[in-house]
């Protein structure tokens, strides 16, 4: 009798364990442990050149949401430029795209063609900022055209929204992207106006910030908003203004905190976001060979 009871108990325990595993797999939180991918760049399409066609081909080979870092359609972000320049290339992946707005888009009043083109994917037209989750990561797209949305400072509408959003999404790993970089090599590309973003993100232990605006690739060491290195708390900035609009000449010295840099390298940044870590790889277009890759853990 005792052996029979033991067998039945073992079977019951096995069935219970199987049920628990099935429930865990079915819960929303269980899927967050998987590694997910983001891919993209900024400063993308101009009808006179074809580098954006080459970078767009890379998107077709890499899965996951596509981020844009502003200045998607040159030179003025008009309806015609989105239709004729951006749409035939990167526009093929619009359903995957979560964009950020640049200053070229605002060359047309209110960046209206940009918001009309991307619709809900770009956030509300009066804001141009929003957030979403990808795997275990919380991701924030911001509008660094501060004068167009009432400022970027701590008490601005966007600053208050950002603080509330991060408080409501206390993820272990957070990534943000917007057009203008806080720091860049040379003497003309720093954007102090976004420092309040950095302070807020730093206070909420963000890991990575992506920016465009400067037409090259730069990877920074982990730094504080003040620019000091900090391996324990610092944020790693990537400048990825390599989507197709080339140029990127530099006036002035190299930024001392830059760990990797390449001018004139069209390509995209591929990010693999895992539970407590991330991997990066700069992927060049066909015929180019520069690349940069690595891995880091979240704070």
- Poorly predicted segments: 1-9, 19-32
Report the order of strands and helices.
Answer: HEHEHEHEEHEHEEEEEEE
Count of helices? 6
β-strand amount: 25-35%
What about the largest sheet? 7 strands, mixed
How many structural domains can be distinguished in the coordinates? Answer: 2
The CATH superfamily title of the largest domain = Metallo-dependent phosphatases
Radius of gyration: 22 Å
Helix vs. strand class: alpha/beta
Calculate the mean pLDDT score and round it: 89
Q: How many extended strands? A: 13
Query: What is the CATH architecture assignment of the largest domain?
Result: 4-Layer Sandwich
Strand order of the largest sheet: 4-5-6-7-9-8-10
Estimate the helix proportion, in percent: 10-25%
CATH fold topology of the largest domain: Purple Acid Phosphatase, chain A, domain 2
Provide a quick synopsis of the model.
The chain has helices at residues 2-26, 51-59, 79-86, 112-118, 157-168, 195-203; strands at 36-41, 66-69, 97-100, 130-134, 137-141, 173-177, 208-211, 216-223, 235-240, 258-263, 267-274, 277-284, 292-297.
What does this structure look like?
This protein has helices at residues 2-26, 51-59, 79-86, 112-118, 157-168, 195-203, and strands spanning 36-41, 66-69, 97-100, 130-134, 137-141, 173-177, 208-211, 216-223, 235-240, 258-263, 267-274, 277-284, 292-297. It is of the alpha/beta class and 299 residues long. It folds into two domains: 1-32; 34-297, Metallo-dependent phosphatases (Purple Acid Phosphatase, chain A, domain 2), CATH 3.60.21. The strands form two sheets. Strands 4-5-6-7-9-8-10 form a seven-stranded mixed β-sheet. A six-stranded mixed β-sheet has the order 3-2-1-11-12-13. β1, α2 and β2 form a beta-alpha-beta unit. α5 runs parallel beside α6 (195-203). It is globular.
């Amino acid at each position: 009798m005792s052996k029979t009871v033991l067998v039945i108990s073992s079977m019951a325990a096995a069935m219970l364990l199987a049920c628990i595993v099935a429930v865990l797999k079915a819960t929303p939180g269980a899927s967050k442990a998987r590694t997910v991918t983001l891919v993209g760049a900024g400063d993308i399409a101009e009808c006179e050149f074809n580098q954006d066609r080459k970078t767009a081909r890379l998107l077709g080979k890499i899965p996951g949401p596509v981020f844009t870092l502003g200045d998607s359609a040159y030179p003025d972000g008009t309806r015609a430029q989105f239709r004729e320049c951006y749409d035939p290339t990167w526009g093929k992946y619009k359903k995957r795209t979560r964009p950020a707005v640049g200053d070229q888009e605002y060359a047309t009043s209110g960046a209206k063609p940009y918001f009309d083109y991307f619709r809900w994917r770009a956030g509300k037209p009066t804001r141009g900022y929003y957030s979403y989750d990808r795997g275990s990561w919380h991701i924030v797209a911001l509008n660094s055209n501060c004068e167009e949305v009432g400022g970027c400072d701590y008490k601005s509408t966007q600053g208050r929204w950002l603080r509330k959003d991060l408080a409501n999404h206390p993820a272990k790993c957070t990534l943000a992207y917007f057009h203008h970089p806080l720091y860049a090599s040379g003497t003309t590309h720093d954007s102090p106006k976004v420092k309040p973003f950095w302070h807020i993100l730093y206070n909420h232990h963000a890991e990575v910030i992506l920016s465009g605006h400067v037409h090259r690739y730069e990877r920074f060491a982990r730094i504080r908003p003040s620019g000091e290195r900090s391996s324990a708390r610092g944020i790693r900035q990537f400048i990825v203004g390599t989507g197709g609009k080339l140029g990127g000449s530099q006036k002035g010295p190299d930024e001392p905190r830059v760990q990797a840099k390449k001018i004139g390298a069209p390509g995209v940044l591929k990010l693999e976001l895992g539970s407590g870590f991330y991997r990066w790889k700069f992927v060049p277009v066909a015929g180019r060979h520069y690349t940069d890759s690595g891995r880091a853990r979240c704070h």
